[in-house]
Amino acid sequence: MTQPVNPSISPRGCVSMTGFAQARSEYAGWSIRISVKSVNHRFLDVKLRLPEGFDLYESALRQAVREKIQRGHVEVSASFLPGAAAPLRINQELAAGYLRAAEELRLQTSAAASVDVAGILRLPGVVLGVTPALPESEEEQERLGKSLAACLTEALGKLDEMRRIEGRHLAEDLRARTARIGEHAAQIRELAVKLQPAFHRRLDSKLKELLSGAGIEPARLAQEAALLAERGDVSEELDRLRSHLTQFTGLLEGGGEAGKKLDFLLQEMHREANTLLSKTPGVESEGLAITGLALEIKAEIEKLREQVQNIE
After folding, report:
1. Residues in CB range of 159: below 8 A, 6 or more apart
2. Which of 54, 71, 100, 151 is most exposed by smallest CB count within 10 Å?
3. Minimal CA–CA distance to 11: which of 264, 252, 274?
4. Which DSSP letter does residue 131 get?
């Protein structure tokens, strides 16, 4: 049987892992319906539901999904509905039993309505052969396989379109939140400059405390001074945060399998926000303002992490 070949996804844009789509095609009087549903998942996990006896096509259908989707939990269901030319068989004995029971109930209840034959046909087990049998010849098997592949390709195309639309909405929200983080970081940088006198006072006080003690080694004194100076400088954290934000927005524009990379960058951004909080003095007004902004940054990062979990 010929393996179906599907076009690859365009690498541009952010793609969501959530979506649903359906498609139909025809085969020998039967209507093939394939539905595809996807939700977020760390890896690509494909689950197929095919009619009994159709395992022959499982490998080709799985490959078709892999060629279109990189990540997510994907459920593919295939079913057959009888068309006008589809051969149907009726369980005459069971249908007659239903009719007798319906007629007896009508007489017992003195109901005026007649027995609905069409309703009898919808009862369980009356209509047989609601799924076509697997063709015996390789030629017919290949023909059925092509019908299934074409139907799945159409459904995956619709799913891809839906996931891209959702991805664009996600990207817009993510860009807005990263922009707010960048604004907060710029405000922190300005406030940190105003806090330099406070850092210097703290450093001077600590050095006087150390110098007043007896037997302080020069190396220890230099180490303590360097440590205090480092704790008062947040420029490196702000520089790294800015770099992470630039990489983050770049990944949103580039598309592809960006979800894992975005999540890693958010972990790094969360670490920088925590460091900012640990270095901020909480007594001066500027210090309190920096603390508030750093907390806002952490809150935005948490919201970003929730959203990123749904990006492919």
Report:
1. 19, 20, 21, 36, 38, 68
2. 100
3. 252
4. S
* Contact between 182 and 225 (Cβ < 8 Å): no
The span from the first CA to the last CA of the chain, in angstroms, equals 31
CATH label of the domain that carries residue 78: 3.30.230
All residues at 6 or more sequence positions from 302 whose CB lies less than 8 Å from its CB, including other chains: 270
In a domain, 265, yes or no: yes
Contact of 14 with 171, CB cutoff 8 Å: yes
Separation CA 312–CA 39 (nearest Å): 10
pLDDT (tens digit per residue) in 96-125: 888 888 888 877 777 666 667 777 877 877
Residue 288 and residue 213 share a domain: yes
- The stretch 59-64 carries a mean pLDDT of 95
The amino acid at 289 = A
The model scores a pTM over 0.85: no
Hey, how many other C-beta atoms are within 10 angstroms of the C-beta on 219? 8
Q: Which domain range does residue 272 map to?
A: 164-308
pLDDT given at position 64: 95
Identify the band that residue 84 occupies on the pLDDT scale cut at 50, 70 and 90.
Answer: low
- Does residue 281 carry a pLDDT above 80? no
Q: For position 227, what pLDDT does the model report?
A: 58
Q: Give the total number of structural domains in the chain.
A: 3
